[in-house]
Amino acid sequence: MEKKKRELCPKCDRPLPTCLCESIRAIPNKLHFLILRHKSESKHALGTVKICELSLSNITVLDGENFDHCEILDHFCSQNAYLVFPTERSEEISSITKINPESMYFIILDGTWNKAKKIFFETKKLHSLNAIKLTPEHASNYRIRKSNVKGGISTLECVNVLGENFDDVSYSPLLSAFEFMINKQIELMGEEVFKKNYC
After folding, report:
1. What kind of architecture, by CATH, is found in domain 27-198?
2. Would you say 100 and 88 are in contact if contact means Cβ atoms under 8 Å apart?
3. What is the pLDDT of residue 158?
4. DSSP string across the chain
5. For residues 53 and 59, is the Cβ–Cβ distance under 8 A?
C-alpha cells in the first residue's frame, strides 16, 4: 500500500500540523542578507531559513554548493560585504563599525558545520571577503536540532544577532517565530521523546 504524502502548507512548505504562518510577522529590514544554503538543506524539516525568507523584506536565498559563477554573489562581493564565517582571519562582530544599514551586506552559509565548510572551500570568491564571527555570548536556543560544533547557532539566530547590532528595526519577530516552531515540534514529538533525544 502506497504511503500517503503529508499535505504541505503552500506558503511555508511545512506539514500542516507544523505550519508556521500564524507566527510570521513582516520585518522591513534594511540590511542586505544573502543566504548560501547547502543544496541538501532546502527541504530539511527543521531548517530556519524559511522563517527568515517569510519574515524579512530584504533577503536572497540560493541553494547549491559552489557559487563562484553566481551573479548575485558577484553583486554582494562588490559591495561593503561581510562573510559571516569563522576563518583564521575573521574579526569579532564587535570590531565592525555600524554604518547606514542600507549599505551593509552580509553573506551567511547555511547547513551543518561540514556542509558550510564545503560551501566555503568550494566557493573561492568567499575567501577574499572580510569575514566576521559571532562571539560565545551568542548562545543557541535551537534545542530541537543537535550541533556537533561548540557555540554553533542557527542561521536565523545569526541573522537576528546581525540585525540587532546593525539595523534600525527590531528583529524580535524572528525569534518569536523560531520559538513557535520549536514548541510546535516538541508538542508533536512529546515531552518524553524530546527529553530523551535532546536534553
Report:
1. 3-Layer(aba) Sandwich (3.40)
2. no
3. 93
4. -PPPPPPB-TTT-SBGGG--GGG---B---SEEEEEEEGGGTT-TT-SHHHHHHHBSSEEEEEES--TT-HHHHHHHTSSEEEES--TTPEEGGGSPP--GGG-EEEEEES-HHHHHHHHHH-GGGGGSEEEE--TTS----TTS--SSTT---HHHHHHHHHHHH-SS--HHHHHHHHHHHHHHHHHH-HHHHHHHH-
5. yes
Residue 1 is predicted with a pLDDT of 45
Domain-wise residue ranges, the chain: 27-198
- pTM, two decimals, is 0.89
pLDDT score of 160 more than 80? yes
Whole-angstrom distance, CA of residue 173 vs CA of residue 56: 10
Range 2-29 average pLDDT: 87
Residue 30 predicted with pLDDT over 50: yes
